[in-house]
Amino acid sequence: MNMPGMPHNMRVRFAVIDSNILTGIGLQEILEDIIPVAEVVLLRSFDELVEAQTEMFAHFFVSSRIYFEHAQYFRNHSTRSIVLVNGDLNISGVKTINVCQSEQNVVRDILALQRGQHGPHGAMPMPPMVMKQKSGVELSAREVEVAVLLSKGFINKEIADRMDIKESTVISHRKNIMEKLKARSLADIIVYSVMNGLVDASEL
User: Fold this and answer.
1) What digits encode the pLDDT tens for the residues 181-196?
2) Which single residue of 20, 64, 105, 147 has CA 20 to 30 Å from 49?
3) Where are the alpha helices (DSSP H) in 7-45?
4) Which of 129, 163, 164, 168 has the alpha carbon at shortest distance from 146?
5) What share of the chain is helix, strand, coil (3-state, %, to 5)?
C-alpha cells in the first residue's frame, strides 16, 4: 500500500507512538518481521508524530493514553489508527490491539488487520511471501510439525508430549527451524507458517 503522493518504490511507513519504549520496540520487531517492506518509526509523543510529518505514515499504532489525549485527531484518521490497549478495552470507531498478551496473539491480531479487517481502506500491506526459506533448503516433516505446534501456542514440553519425543529433541528442531528460516523470534515462525499455508490465521 502506498500513501497518496508517495513514489511506488518507497517503503511503507508505520508510526508506533508510545511513551513506553519497551512496548514500542517489541511491536516494531513484530511489525518488521510480518511486513518486511515496512519502515517502523518509534515516537514517544504526539508532538514527535507531528514533527515527523503525519501524512508520511500509512498507519499509526498509538498508545491508549496518547489516543485519548488527542482523540479528535485520531478519530479523523480512524482508518489509519490502531490503538494499543492493556487488556480487552474496546474503543468505538477504531481498531485496537491488546499489547498485554502473548507474542503469538499480537501476531494473530496484526495478521487479522492485514486481511482487511481494519476497514475498507485500512488493510495493511501483505507481501505474497513474508518469510522465504533459504534457497535449496526445506523444513523436514518433523520440523514442519514443530513449527505448526509452536505457531498454535504450544510450549516445548507440550510439543514433546504430543509428538512423543524428548523435549531436547523439540529444542533441537526449533533451533534448526530458526536457522533455516533465518528467524529472529517466534513471530517469524508464526508468520512463515501462516504465509505458507501450514496454519490458518484463525487457528492461532
Assistant:
1) 888 888 888 888 887 7
2) 105
3) 21-34
4) 163
5) 50, 15, 40
The residue type of 7 is: P
At residue 16, φ and ψ (nearest 5 deg) are -105, 115
Q: How many CB atoms lie within 10 A of CB 200?
A: 9
pLDDT less than 70: residues of the chain: 1-10, 115-137, 204
Residue whose C-alpha cell is 518486511? 36
Taking only Cα atoms into account, the Rg of the chain, rounded to an integer number of angstroms, comes to: 18
Quote the number of domains for the chain: 2
Record the pTM.
0.67
Q: Are 56 and 149 found together in one domain?
A: no
Domain containing 33 equals: 12-113
Residues 85 and 68 sit within 8 Å (Cβ to Cβ): no
Closest CA to 50 of 28, 31, 32, 77: 77
DSSP class of residue 57?
A: -
